[in-house]
TrEMBL record:
It comes from Streptomyces oryzae. This is DUF2493 domain-containing protein. It comes from the Bacteria.
Length: 103
């Protein structure tokens, strides 16, 4: 048994919140520590969005790996930036749907 459970950071578009919640639940029940995007029930300001984006990069720093929730292969601008950050910091990145072709 490892000294601590694996830590996975979930990334993906907030349009997939239900899918992220399901993956979070499944990983948690499998004994994985999950860090995920923050959620807000109301519209947020640009300043809040920038702060949440920066905070999510710190979550990637904490993680052992990144799991991108991308139904249909969709990767938005923020998620693409998070994937680039994860790669730059040496974090393994996997996808729930086939990874998009590199351009």
């Amino acid at each position: 048994m490892p000294d601590r459970p694996e830590i996975v950071c979930i990334c993906g578009s907030t349009r997939f919140v239900d899918e992220m919640r399901a993956v979070n639940r499944d990983l948690t029940l499998a004994g994985v520590i999950v860090v995920a995007p923050g959620e807000a029930d109301e519209l947020i300001t640009d300043k809040q969005k920038k702060a949440l984006d920066a905070l999510h990069l710190r979550k990637i720093d904490l993680a052992d790996r990144v799991l991108v929730i991308n139904p249909g292969g969709y990767i938005g601008e923020s998620t693409s930036r998070e994937i680039d950050y994860a790669h730059a910091t040496g974090k393994p990145v996997s996808f729930t749907d086939p990874a998009p072709a590199a351009t």
